Amino acid sequence: MRWIVKIAAAASLGVLSPAMAQEAAPANPCELHVWPAERMTSVTTGLLGGGLIDAMIHSGTDANNKASLASALDSPSQLDALQSLDLATLIKLAPGTVVVRHDQPLERKSMNKVKTRRSDSQASCYSELIVADVFYQKAAIYGRSLRTLFMIRNFGNDQKIDFEYKAWGGNGLSLFPPKEGENVEAALGELVSVFKKNFEEYANNARRSMATKKIG
Amino acid sequence: MVAVLAMLQAGDLTAQDASPSSLPQACELHVWPSSGLRSIYHGWWHGGIVDGAVTQRDGYPPVPADPIDSRLQANLLSQLDLPGTLGLAQFKTVIHEEPLASREARSGSARLVASQTPCYAELIADDVFFQQDVVNGSSLKTLFRFRDFGGAQSPLRTFSTWARTPLKLFPPKTPADNEPSMTELQGAYRNNAVLFGGYLAKAMLPPKGKAK
To answer: How many domains does chain A contain in total?
Structure first.
């Protein structure tokens, strides 16, 4: 009974775990499977403009930044951030599409190699949204920014990709990274809000690409 | 010292009073451990995979399985005078063994425990990282989140920051290193809690300015 209620409650929100999705009502066949990123990078360059010495000077800073990225944008937080957005409108999902969360990221090196569905779902209307990379950069002239690489793959009813769009979204940061011993709440919160902003930017470009290719 | 164990309520909530002599006090400091060790590696040619070491991915330094789980963290935290460290001398410490989901630890604006005490605070170990970079070596980093509610149901002040302690022995290279490296790791975890108390005290100081 509890299982049924759980499925009904989750389905009403359009959010299911992979196991639940298989048992959900077949009347709603469209599924969007979402994976978070496992690769996070920080590159800080000073007036030297990069290179080995610059990398050595900023190694500690970049390691600290990576820990902050990995914490603020851990897998549940990435998925929560995406699901807090109006995905249906942003990436033109079919009405009633069920979002299936995958807390375990895909292996980054397999992302471009595997051209078939990344889940076992047999849904007749199936698409994927994959966060591939989270990249923080600080450059002496251009300032601080967070860039995110997203990928949408639409399969339709088979194992062949009908539409794919992979691109970066990127926006500036004003609070991150925090100084040592300083309150980090605002700076870590900024990473999440800019991550969402990056997806909105990416989605705008994805919709343009869909319109060009007459998808959706 | 004999630890006093009490069940606060039915279910999985186990409370451990770290200061038994202060039982009659009404003020409560609730403390949660993190879910376990995570890892970050920063190298020249690779290193971007989060948790690469703790999940034993190729190219990342091997780390013993689950070296500082939530139960051990709760135990280490119970060994400290946390109220003294956080400037909450009159508070009774209640240590929870079950970690919080990151969503609960970060986004909640109400008390995490249905306590009506007139003075209530929370300390959460949100994330614990084994951080390694090729230039600066290894360290244990803990992201602590502190919320002081006073007598209210929403926090009056919040403060979160990283505390970092360098590691020289962890992860162990040989079986003989196992025990000293684990002792070092546990000492670093305790030290991070003390460091956090120092950062909190500093953050609570009034801003510097010219006296008028």
So the answer is: 1
The domain ranges of chain B are 4-204
Longest dimension (CA), chain A: 64
Type of residue numbered A210? M
Report the topology of domain B4-204: Double Stranded RNA Binding Domain (3.30.160)
Q: What is the ipTM of this complex?
A: 0.86
Query: What is d(CA A31, CA A9) in angstroms, rounded to the nearest whole number?
Result: 17
Tell me whether B117 touches chain A (CB under 8 Å): no
Distant-in-sequence, close-in-space partners of B107: CB < 8 Å, separation ≥ 6: none
For residue B54, the SS3 value is coil
pLDDT tens for B106-139 read 887 899 999 889 999 999 999 999 999 989 999 9
Q: Which residues of chain B are within 8 Å of residue A71 when distances are taken between CB atoms?
A: 126-127, 129, 143
State residue B76 phi and psi, 5-degree precision. Answer: -65, -40
Distances from the Cα of B100 to the Cαs of A31, A61, A124, A199, B7, in angstroms?
A: 29, 28, 37, 27, 18
A38 touches chain B (CB under 8 A): yes
What's the domain range around A173? 2-212
Q: Give CA–CA dist B2/A198, Å, rounded.
A: 53
| pTM confidence score | 0.87
Asked if B38 lies within 8 A of A70 by C-beta distance, the reply is yes
- Judge whether B161 and B123 are in contact, CB under 8 Å: no
Q: Residue A26 carries which side chain, given as an amino acid letter?
A: P
Instruction: Please answer yes or no on whether A60 and B133 come within 8 Å at the CB atom.
Output: yes
Give yes or no for A6 touching B (CB within 8 A): no
Tokens linked to A134:
């989270």
